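seq as requested:
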Amino acid sequence: MMNMSKELPDYEAIAIGVFDRIQSEFPHLTMKRDGPTEHVNLDLEIPKQPGLSFEIGLNLQSDELHLCASGFWNEWFPCSDNEVVENYFEAVSGLIRGTHRLKEVLRGNTVVKSILQEPCEYGWDGMSHYYKLHIPWYGKKTTRIIINEAMEMPSSTSP
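struct tokens:
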């Protein structure tokens, strides 16, 4: 009898790899790893601090890489796909660098829609969207932009 079982990818090793890349890219930021917990295999918290004007939460849940910031929450999957991992890394590092932003739509004080945006030739383009169920007419509709303006870019020195 032939063994037809397929070996599953090591999702935790994939997440550790991308979390290590993020920590290497931004060594000036304090980051805290944790896990596993009841719902999360691995967690990386990046608190608001000098160099980051808002908190970012990253985690692995099964084969999904999650990104939470302000009112935005989305997942990239399957993390066994290299293109998915690269898109996730670009989203996270873009938010930290301040090249990407979140455009949030609120009803009252509740975020009901959040769009992760990247720059493009005509302004901003949506990379990923988060929607929350809500009563459409409840509360005044407002929009806000969340962008990391605290990122200190290394200064270059001229000879």
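The chain has one domain: 11-146.
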